Structures
1.
Amino acid sequence: MDIAYIPSPSRGVLHLGPIPLRAYAFCIILGVVAAVWLGSKRWVARGGAKHTVGDIAVWAVPFGLVGGRLYHVITDHQLYFGEGKNPWNAFKIWEGGLGIWGAVALGAVGAWIGCRRRGVPLPAYADAIAPGIVLAQAMGRWGNYFNQELYGRATTLPWGLEIHKTLPDGEVVNGVFHPTFLYESIWDVAVALLVIWADRRWKLGHGRAFALYVAAYTVGRFWTEWLRIDEAHVYFGLRLNDWTSIVVFIGAVAYLVIVGKKRPGREDPASIDPAAHAEAEAAGEKAAGEKAAGDRAADEKAVAGKALAGKAAAAKAKGEGPSETVAGDKPSRIVDGDGRAEADPQPAAAASAAAEKTGKDAEYPI
């Protein structure tokens, strides 16, 4: 009976016309985006400006990529230098080969440069970005899956990874192995959640959240590194990366303890990012301008209302200006140029006719 193992991808490159889209690079890019997004949310929650993390990442990411590749090439130099090897392959980063230790170390140098330019303390920035970094590592490990690399020992477990590939030296690999990429990816997600939880619980600051990430990551890395069977330097029965994990773990724990005693709590939110003050002032000026504009509009509306009321009152007063007349009488007519009233000729004519009629009636009585 066949067991349904995890299948390997048929290919790790998708060609869009002449442009190759490599899954390994795509996973790294997704990880960088996730790290910047999560880091920005955490940085703003700590009192920083929303664009600071992205601006510093412009420095940190390139440095990190170079550092990761340098660490890999230095520690696995036998893959690129020596008889029958092509040194130019050391530049083919898309084929895999990024050492997280070098990426974090040189990436920290780039972050330090960016922080200096922005006036931001590096430990505070590191605390904000720590869960994002390990989340990026979780996504980047899937690039190893598409490249069919860094798998572990042979296994019959149902979640074993099927590998069908030809190595550079011509050796063909077919079998089922521990999916160490998956183990480490799951562990990295757990570390990200742990750092977020601990940071909320104990208000970690001054680089302690970053130290917790480093310490927790090295524990999982030690275990997955012990399972791997790819070529590596071995010292006293342990692979080089296992020794690196041990040393880095001790340093991270020591930092947590020492800094926790000397500088407990977090940094003052008002002191971590000058750009946040500029954004707050700009927002305040905008709000004040909008309020002033609203007040001016209200004042103009009130003035217009008063003007309309005055015109209405004047019109009303003008309509009541002529002298009141007795019912049945007609008002006098105003002569242009002066205010004197001119007698209406119709009443005089009527009176004359009445007088004439009266005389005739007297002469010819009915």
2.
Amino acid sequence: MTAGTHRVAILVYDGVTLLDVAGPAEVFKEANRFGADYGIMLLSPTGAGVTTNLGVRIAADGALSQAPAVDTLLVAGSDRFPRARVPADLVDAVRTPAAAAGRVASICTGAFVLAAAGLLDGKRATTHWKVAHELAARHPTSRVEPDAIYVRDGTTYTSAGVTAGIDLALALVEEDHGPDVARDVARALVVYMQRAGGQSQFSAPLQGAPPRSPALRTITDLVTANPSGDHSLGELARHLNVSTRHLTRLFHDELSTTPARYVENIRFDMARALLDQGHSATRAATLAGFPSYESMRRVFARKLSISPAAYQRRFSTTRRTAAG
């Protein structure tokens, strides 16, 4: 590594979720193609290789405790932690290096490791929504936000379920090198340009490149962070203190769509996620911000040629088959 290399250490251990490791690592590696200089190290508590949740063995570059101070320390998650306490050796392995790191981040249930080491005391944090209640119960001094994609509190970052680790890594790249590099990485990996950290843990539709103008990006972030809010054309224009005609022109010029259609797409994507989670169609319509179930049904019919109920039945059948 050169003197200017930004050292990224990813903590791995037996049972680690492979995608928690590979997703962020791929983001940083890809960023190097666009001018970044990240040195990526996989470090384990002892320096030995580990077996991931998929049974795949991966080699470690060394022991975390023996590595030089890193600029970014990422702690990957494991599905073991919501069911059991974090082992003491893993807690000990992360505590001192984390204190010396420029910034510390966790992917998914890696938040349990940070919390067990006392690194989330008094801080805002998140993890996968299914186990957020367990994290909050074990560590009551942490302010757990169960519906956020990722949360930053000072130099500490926590993210939601596995793919949110990619969102977080893109956000870190943007923090280091600006939005253009992060956008190039997202395009190269064919993933969403990172979702706003406060956005709900639902996938957002891939709208292409995010708007370049700060004003329009403010509006798109506002909508994606709270799809059920009042996002009428007049209200969005008032938020920016511009005319409705000017806002419409901004959407047309930068996103090739209208404000109303953009809001509809965000709500449609959220409604699908809610249906996937088992919410009723009427409840999904309400939570996603549709004026009525009928308005949501029309959108589903236009986009998917099926009703919300039919979409949910099809997904549920697939899920049961996969689980079996």
